[in-house]
Specification:
mainly alpha, Helix Hairpins
Amino acid sequence: MKNFEFLYLIGGIISLVLQFLTIVACALLFSKNRTLGTILMLLGSFLTVIFYGLSIFGTQLMAQKGAEQVAKTGGLFNLLGQIPHFLFVLGLLLFIVKYRKKESVQKNPG
């Protein structure tokens, strides 16, 4: 197990594939059900990929300025990278609430 870069590469590839699959799933859900919840889920999943790419690019760019700048940039992207996850979860919760309301009305129409 001397080749740690290979492990990071495989992990990054798997993460990227799963993020793109999440975008596809959210796009399909949005195409069937256009609500605020599905919009937020799609936006959050899309922004996750964007932030992921920006963090890699930003870290590489800041590596030229030294370790302290890399640490600052990493911390900043770690903090900002939570925004897309928050949007996705908020959208998921809104979707669930709306779905449960619709299901409740169908069971008890009166």
